[in-house]
Specification:
- By secondary structure, the chain is an alpha+beta fold.
- It folds into 2 domains: 207 residues, no CATH class; 178 residues, no CATH class.
- Strands 2-3-8-5-7-6 form a 6-stranded mixed β-barrel.
- Strand 2 and strand 3 form a beta hairpin.
- The protein is elongated.
- 36% of the residues are buried.
Length: 414
């Protein structure tokens, strides 16, 4: 019979009376603090999830899920290895490639990574087809000496489609006039944009056979790029594939090639979660302050209720209900606000940038120039649970103090 009464009294204490408007104000501040903390946690972690997703997709769009390479930098008998890799049940596609860092010269000079690709098999392992801004991969035909540049690299060189670019090979050759570098003039046949500064400004694509001739590899290649059916398990699939391939080869997955980057993202997410959780912790301390003041203000009421037969555990329940309701209301408001903001954060940021005429994420500085967001139900549940647990724990001491109130001492001066 006392359970409905404890709820009723707890709700009644949340509303302001003539003497305790300040206590109700502190209650509202506590609710606002919890709501702000939950909203901030959901929004910030959703944005970081979005950044991680964009990094993963954009990087994998250029480097593939796994790579097979020879230990000496050369890869003979690669057609057999490509066939063996494609026969693996977890491999969706395989494509040979040649990579070499070198210099390019047009109106200006710039360093870049030259990647020789097979236009027929490249779509099996990358998203280059979707990244083309002009021209197409089919324009790369052997013997025509054509190159596709990243938009940033083309800007650095001062060229566009139809212009000529000279590529310097790291090999040198002896001539009657002395030792000179191996060079070849290429025609720019297209431009691509990966959306990542690292690739847009430092990657050029040529045909595989042209790369073999330019870098004097004969029929050899640098490696084979693979696309797997589950990129999350790329490490274990790559390990199994390495054990099945004949000969000694080095199989690396995308997590190894960019391990530091993704480990840094995970570390940042953990640190941000800890830091932003302190907002909820501060709001929980406000709940303690509020309930302590309520207990002090309601000494006579508590004494009368205990005199009428209300047990100490029910007195505790009254104040735990009051504190828990502050936490529940604040958490619900924060969850709703956080979900709405996380789903619309890109539009909100774009509006702020337009209003203030500033750019938060410059493409020249950051890998990703927009503000992606990925809302995960597990994060929402985790943050809401954290707020509710802290709110409940913050009610224990004030409620216990109220339950210890002695009716005689409380009513002595009434």
């Amino acid at each position: 019979m006392y359970q409905p009464m404890t709820l009723f009294v707890g709700l009644r204490y949340l509303r302001a009376k003539r003497r305790n408007h300040f206590i109700s104000f502190i209650s509202l501040v506590s609710m606002a603090g919890i709501a702000l903390g939950v909203m901030t946690l959901i929004t910030v972690l959703s944005v970081m999830n979005g950044f991680e997703r964009e990094l993963r997709e954009r990087i994998l769009g250029m480097i593939s899920h796994a790579t097979i390479q020879g230990y000496d930098g050369r890869f003979p008998n690669w057609p057999d290895i490509v066939a063996d890799a494609r026969d693996h049940p977890r491999v969706l596609g395989a494509a040979p490639f040649v990579e070499q860092e070198t210099m390019l010269r047009a109106r200006r000079t710039a360093g870049a990574m030259i990647r020789g690709i097979d236009p027929a098999s490249e779509p099996e392992v990358s998203d280059l087809v979707d990244m083309m801004r002009s021209g197409s991969l089919e324009d790369l035909t052997p013997g025509r000496w054509q190159v596709i540049l990243g938009v940033g690299l083309a800007s650095r060189l001062g060229v566009g489609p139809g212009d000529s670019v000279t590529i310097f090979a790291p090999e040198i050759r002896a001539t009657p006039v002395g030792v000179v570098p191996q060079v070849r003039r290429f025609e720019v046949s297209g431009l691509f944009e990966a959306g990542m500064h690292e690739y847009d400004t430092a990657l050029a694509l040529i045909h595989l056979e042209d790369a073999q001739r330019l870098f004097r590899l004969g029929e050899d290649i640098t490696g084979i790029r693979l696309k797997l059916d589950d990129m999350i398990r790329a490490r274990w699939i790559a390990r199994d594939l390495s054990a099945e391939l004949p000969g000694l080869y080095q199989v690396r997955d995308w997590t190894q090639q960019h391990a530091n980057l993704f480990r840094a993202v995970q570390t940042e997410k953990t640190v941000m979660f800890i830091i932003l959780s302190l907002i909820i912790a501060v709001a929980a301390f406000n709940i303690i302050s509020t309930l302590v003041m309520v207990v002090t203000d309601k000494q006579s009421d508590i004494a009368i209720l205990k005199t009428m037969g209300l047990e100490p555990r029910h007195v505790m329940a009254v104040f735990m209900v009051q504190g828990s309701l502050i936490g529940v209301i604040g958490t619900l408001v924060g969850v709703v606000a956080g979900i709405v903001l996380a789903l619309n954060v890109e539009s909100v940021v774009a509006g702020i940038e337009s209003l203030l005429s500033i750019e938060f994420l410059s493409a020249e500085v950051y890998y990703i120039s927009d503000l992606p967001s990925e809302l995960r139900a597990s994060d929402v549940i985790r943050f809401a649970g954290l707020a509710l647990v802290l709110s409940l724990l913050s009610t224990i001491y004030p409620a216990w103090r109220a339950a210890r109130t002695e009716p005689v001492e409380a009513l002595r001066y009434e």
